[in-house]
Every structure is written in C-alpha cells, then in structure tokens.
Design a protein that fits this description.
It is globular and about 55 Å long. It has helices at 5-8, 12-33, 38-60, 64-68, 70-87, 107-125, 139-153, 158-175, 179-198, 202-210, 223-234, 261-293, 298-322, 340-358; strands at residues 89-91, 94-99, 104-105. Strands 1-2-3 form a 3-stranded antiparallel sheet, covered by helices on one side. It is mainly alpha-helical and 363 residues long. Helices cover 67% and strands 3% of the residues. The chain has one domain.
Length: 363
C-alpha cells in the first residue's frame, strides 16, 4: 500500500524537467536516425518506455533498501563486469556488452549507480574525523572505486572510467578530507601521470592530444570535433529547423545519435535551443542538489549527491568534448543520447532522486 503522503511531497517540477529532457532526446534521436537508421529510433522508443518503468520502480521503493543491500549490489555488479571478458560481445574494438538476446546490457552503466550506493553506505556508517579523512580512511572507498574502474578501463571504456573517478572524488570531498592529504594525493597523481599515459590505447592517446589542434588531422583524430564544430556553428541563432540538419543526416558527423547528439541538436535548434537544453540541465542539477541538502538522513544525502555528481560530470564532459573544449573520451549526454543501458540507468538514477525528495518528511 503506497502512503498517500508521498504525493504531497513529490517534486513534480523535477519530473517535468526530466520529461522535457527525455522528449528532447527522443526527438533528437529521431531526427538523427530516421533517414538512414530507422531501427535505432524504434529501439529508442522501447528504451524510453522501459526506462520510465524502472524510474517508477525506483521512485516508490523506499531508498533505504539500497543501503541495506549496497554491498550485495556492488558485488553482483563486479561479477557481471568480470563476466564481460568471457561472454561479452565486441563492437568497434571494445568488449563492453553482454547479449541477452533481445537486449545488450552494458554493465559499466550499472556500475556507476552501484559505486554511488556502496560509497554512500560506507561513508554513512564510517565516522569521519572532525578534521577530515586521512589517507588511511581513503583506502577502503578507494578500493571500491578502483576495482570497477580497472575492469571498465580494460574493456576499454575510458569515458565511463573517468565518470567513476569523478563520482568518487566528488563524494569524498563532500564527506570532508584533510587538505594536506588532498594536496599530497594531487602531487602523487601528477607524478604518476606519465606512467598512466603508457597504459592508454593508441586511439585514446590520439583523442587526448588532438583536441588542442583538431585541424592538424582533420580526416583522422580531429574529424569528430571538426564536424561537430561545423554542425554547432551552422545552427546560428535559431537553427536550421527540426529534421533540416545536414551534418548528421548526411552522415558527416560520426556517432551523431550517441556521444555527439548535442551537435545535431545545436544545428537544428541553434543557440536558442542549446541554451534551453542547458537551462533544463542547470535546473535539474540545482533541484538535485536541493534534494541532497534536504534529505532526511546522511545516507540519503550521500546517495543524492553522488547521483547529482554523476549527472553533472556527464553533462559537463559531453558538452565540453562536443564543443572542442575537452578531449573526446566517449561520454554520452544524459536523457538525450541514444543507448539502452545508459538511458535506463539515467532514468533509474532520476527516480532515486525523486524518491529521496518525497520521503524527506516521512519516517
């Protein structure tokens, strides 16, 4: 039996923003694929419906259940990530998916939520010293992040690995860490950067270096960014109009329905359209931060903040790489980019935020 009081405190405005972003994403995927790849648009219809169902599920299940089973969910996620190397499917040189017949699961997407839950549980029960966490205090949460990070980086999936990294540091910093420890870690990582560089794949190195000057290799590593900039710039103030974009429709822009869909949107809706989408994302992030701030318990705060950081970094990195400000690392845009596992995970995460917000006065 659902407590009717839940609807009294439900954040209908956040739901409206999520719905607006999902509708914009749906329209953008249709525009990018209806001519040459109609099956992608049809699949996106299914993912959106399934994502909505999962969001409803995560809204009405008391979020405290995620604290109770956080370690179990994390353990299962690690096992599934390991299984990718044995039964996973390879596409484009990456082994990231498990075929379930009618659906290909990308476990790395689920790993983001699993990491947030396990860190929220651990940091909630762990007594953080008044002066902040020491290096010793970071060992266990660091291992929680490092294990899925290494498994995902091995696939390889640098973009999702970076998101895990950013989620971890966001949650650690909000939980408080001693300044001298933070400085020491920063210096150590800076010193180890050349070693880490040696372990990157050739195409990953090329992506990280070419963003400074994509014009130096316009038909190679700089092609994605060059075509993306052309699409964004040609949109002008009001855009070319829905279904009238050329970069995506004529297949000049690679990955135009996934990582670079923001460029398709910018070409068709111009500066006005992109500012509208950015305003919706800003409103969503602010509402999510408010959800964390008003949570009824510390676990709810950490869970909401972790999810907020996940969305924030995904939006920031995606728009940064599409506009040429950041390297291309393969991070999709929440609610907008095509991708079954990604869309469902995003909807579930949004549902958890709504769950935390509406239960803030109910014990």
């Amino acid at each position: 039996m659902i407590d009717r009081r839940l609807f009294t405190y439900f954040d209908w405005m956040m739901l409206a923003v999520i719905a607006a972003l999902a509708i914009i994403g749906f329209a953008s995927v249709y525009s990018a694929t209806h001519t040459h790849q109609p099956m992608i648009f049809k699949k996106d219809t299914y993912w959106l419906a399934i994502g909505a169902l999962f969001m409803l599920l995560t809204i009405f299940i008391n979020y405290n259940i995620f604290e109770r089973y956080a370690y179990v969910l994390y353990g299962v996620t690690i096992l599934v990530l390991i299984s990718v190397f044995f039964i996973g499917s390879t596409f484009g040189g990456a082994k990231r998916w498990i075929s379930l017949g009618f659906f290909s699961l990308q476990p790395s997407e689920i790993a983001k939520l699993a990491l947030i839950m396990v860190l929220a549980k651990y940091l909630n029960v762990r007594n953080v010293p008044a002066k902040g966490m020491t290096l010793k205090d970071l060992v266990v949460p660091g291992l929680f992040m490092l294990l899925p990070f290494l498994l995902i980086a091995k696939q390889p999936d640098l973009g999702t690995g970076i998101i895990l990294w950013m989620i971890f540091w966001s949650m650690v910093l909000v939980s408080k860490i001693r300044l001298k420890v933070l400085i020491g870690i920063f210096v150590s990582f800076a010193a180890l950067a050349p070693i880490a560089w040696m372990f990157l794949k050739g195409y990953q190195k090329a992506r990280l270096t070419s963003f400074m000057s994509p014009e130096s290799d316009p038909l190679g590593t700089g092609y994605h960014v060059m075509q993306s900039k052309i699409a964004i710039g040609s949109g002008g103030l009001f855009g070319k109009g829905f279904l009238h974009g050329t970069q995506g429709k004529l297949m000049f822009l690679p990955e135009h329905h996934t990582d670079f869909i923001f460029a398709v949107l910018a070409e068709e809706w111009g500066l006005v359209g992109t500012f509208t989408v950015l305003a919706l994302f800003l409103a969503f992030i602010l509402m999510a931060l408010n959800t964390a701030n008003t949570a009824k318990d510390r676990f709810g705060f950490l869970l909401a903040f972790g999810i907020t950081s996940m969305f924030f970094w995904q939006v920031t990195i995606n728009i940064g790489m599409v506009s040429g400000i950041l390297p291309v690392v393969g991070v999709p845009l929440p609610f907008i980019s095509y991708g079954g596992s990604f869309l469902i995970t995003s909807m579930m995460a949004a549902g958890i935020l709504l769950n935390i917000k509406m239960r803030r006065f109910i014990f």
